[in-house]
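Researcher: Please generate the 3D structure of the following complex. Treat every line as part of one assembly.
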Amino acid sequence: MSLTIKTKPRIKKNDLLMHILLISIGLFVSFPIILAILTSFKLPSDVTNYPPTLLPEVWTVENYVTAWTSTPFWRFFANSIIQTGVIVFFQVLLSVMAAYAFSVLEFPGRDLFFYLIIGSLMVPFQLTFIPNFVRISQWGWANTYMGLTVPFLASAFGIFLLRQFFLTIPKELHDSAKIDGAGNWRFLWQILVPLSKGSISAFSIFAFLSAWSQYLWPLIITNDETMRTIQIAVRFFLFDQERGADWGAVMASAVIALLPTLALFLIAQRQLVKGIAMTGLKG
Amino acid sequence: MNDSPSTQPPPPRTANKQKIRQRKIKATLEGFLYLFPSLLILTIFVYIPIVTSFQMSLTRVAPFGSKTIDVGIGNYTRLLADSDYLYTIKVTLIFTLIIVFAGVALAVFLAIALSYPLDHLSWFHRLLIFVPIVISSAVTGVLFRWIYHPVIGYLNYALLQFGIDGPNWLNSKEWALIAVAMAVIWRQLGFNVIIALAGVQNIDGTYYEAAKVDGANTWHRIRHITLPLLSPTLFFLFIINFINSLQVFGEINILTEGGPGGATTTMLYSIYYDAFVGTPFRGYASAQAYLLFVLILLISFVQFKWAGKKVHYQ
Amino acid sequence: MKKMFKLMILMLILALSLAACGGDTAKEPVEEAAVEEVAVEEVEEEAVEEVEEEATPEEAAPEEEAAPEEEAAPEEEEAMAEAVEIAFWHAMGGELGVVVDELVARYNDSQDAVHVTATYQGSYDDTYNALLAAFDTGTEPNITQNFDLASQTMFDTGRLVPAYELMAADGFDDSIFVPAVKDYYSDQDGMVAMAFNSSTPILYYNVDMFEELGLDAPSQDMTFSEFTALCDEIQAGGTEYCVTFGQVGWYFEQILANSGGLYFNNDNGRTARASEAVFNEGQGVEVFTFLSGLFADGYAPNLGKTWTDTDAAFHAEQAAMVFDSTSGALGMQEGGDFTVGTTYIPHSDSSDRNGVVIGGAALWLLDAEDDVINAAAWDFMKFMAQPDQQVTWHTGTGYFPVRTDIVDNAELEAFWEENPNFVTAINQLEDTHTTKEDGSVNYAVLGGQAGPFPAIRQFIVDAYSAVLDDGMTPQEALDAAAEKANQELSDYNAFFE
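Model: Done. Output below.
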């Protein structure tokens, strides 16, 4: 996958310089994360030492114990998993279906609907979150998984993205499937979806990341501790009125909050990068 | 109608027409069914709120929702006369410009650096640089609050090692906005670099070969080949970063809560603040949301117009 | 056609789950919830289990309502019905939260009729915001801990069951409470909320550092100029900063009260609804000049609006003194490697020491429109004010005990012996002049009361920045703040005209 031109036999020295440069930039960029991880393993009393140190003098999981026991942390974690799981599942399902309609199916009004859906990307969250908060509240969905998830079950972005991919699938494939007697529904799930595994998993990862990271909406729509997501929990550790922020526990909770997405990234870096690159190129 | 197909030549046109029409209806119906769930959700949670929001912006509601006063366009007139709000607009513009330009420039630089062909470890470099992409805005806020800490912050400690007395990042009007913007740029860096890198990699190698033959140096190649051919990608990045920067909430909420003295209160934060904090006035907040909506539409329109002329598509 | 059928089923499920939302709001929530559950069940089994779990406690309350035969006689209920569920919101995080949980558990273990679920809502501001939002969503708790500033709003919601009603019905004697606490949470009819966690700001100082510098312990009756003179001595001794405190509204309010200044007109909003802020006149200007001057003149590091970063500066010995709440006493003592002393907050040169306004928060009972539930909630509130709980609370946190009749408690005496810093706050409050020399009420130390006070407090926070960043004079900054405050007041009061 080397992109620029293959030059002649490379000069080793340049390579080495490039390595050093890139690694230092990389460490600089990832420093906040590394720092959080290191800090979270310090003794609570060492966390606020000045001058600050990088490595813990004594490695301890005390901060994690604090984070985990002083609040129903497992519950926050489970809430995030459920919220994210439901959103990703539906976003993928609904996007696949709509993208199929917009790419393979042909019917009058299709373009109109397409613009209608893409147009929703132009409506900012800023405009909708207050009315949606009021509406969801009136339905009695505050503090429920419904309230956390339902407004996000459809993704115009996902529809757009998958449509772009479906459009690259040769039309003949659909025609021949038709001849074989496969209807749209079967064609979609048995042929098109397996073919689009890459795009779909890329979008799933993308949906996962944004759902997991949600902050403003869960902040306003939940006030019951048992319905809080992990992102909100992190905030509550930090803003502890009339008591100093326990930075050790704050860092431990932040690390727990970033762990699932970090793990996903380490496992599925390729798909993630590919997925994001794909969206960019077609933009 | 036509039950004798073999002997008499059927009036093919009408039959076909009808068949076509039937097929058309069926196809429309089927297509619509595939769209229906997405449309439904988007209608309820995106399109209807456009109307509700406007209705709300014409009222004033008591903080605990029990009483409503109709104020007509009162919220809007007050908004435009409110010097705090004008300041908020200014803050938002600066914030957006920093994030869009600094963020994209940095990403392009890193993408070009990362596109340097290396035999080993390039996955590792990418890993380190892409990794902020998995960090949420809330966690970003927490991480940077720690780094910016006015007393025991790592950033100022590091600056001190170079003999620089670091600024009061989050508590001075001068720096707070920049500090928050830096955190946001960091969070979006992974995304931006990935897209920029894909753009760079997508450029046909033969352009470079040709340039090489002509004796162009690295800078020239970047300046005259990479950047122009990257313009669709850049355009995309500008738009996305522009939209994202208007949506920034987590970092502001955790780093500064809009302070000091409103220095980091962007238009979104102001909406949130007026709708949910202190003594909430949702009508006033809705009026702000509406103004922002119109603004976004206008700017996007201009951007697309402008891009239509300038962007270099391969 | 099979695939079409499948598609339609799927659609139907979705439509169903959304149709429930399309209905008007007056529908019974339970019914709606049921429809949704069925709908989702077919799609996402895992999620549904959780949803159902969630739904149960919510549904429990209405069921309780449906069977109100048993009067408020908790003993009889034991075997008959399930415990009455009471939702209790509080703003006590970290170690404070642990103590709250302990007290709640103690209550739940002590009897079977009532079960209290405590929920931490974040800071006072968060809790207040969450409560206002909850009135929209219908998810308000039975009892909420709400801070001093919220009092007026709490009245105005019309959802309050005033404590005096319950006290009267129950024969509860409110004279056991510390007078300052009782007065603060009273209207003309009596106490409207149950005092729970009360605190005041005190000045903490680094005893070791004072000894090293050869300085006497700071006096309990310092004027501003004495304070800055002390600062000069401290900083001459090489300490980077004299004092540190967060730019929150609270210290301004307290030092203003200590200097005898008013925040709002109409006797601080106590004799009639406040319609104007008056903190930009007289004492207010003097106080704010002093406070913002501490930053401007390099006596205090500018840490912004924070409750927490100041501790770090104090513990890292960058600052010799810190203004903070009494409730932080425990953490303040333990955080640094030095001895911590405490004294009263200062007052202006042109005034005598008046004393402090009670801070912290109280417990408010929100009407569940059900006597059984209200009685259960009241039972819990009473429990929290009992001597045992108050002793645990005080020694575990630093909030002072709100009742006067436990000062002889042996456990407390032993505790105070070891922790003299806890006594400072109690003395400071006792030394508060609740009446003026002519015998009239000293409204300054009763503290301001106004509906939009939480929003107005923020204008004082902004005023710091106006002085420090924009170069305004304290008078100009306060004028700007007062102007905005007056707008908020008139907006708010418009709802009650």
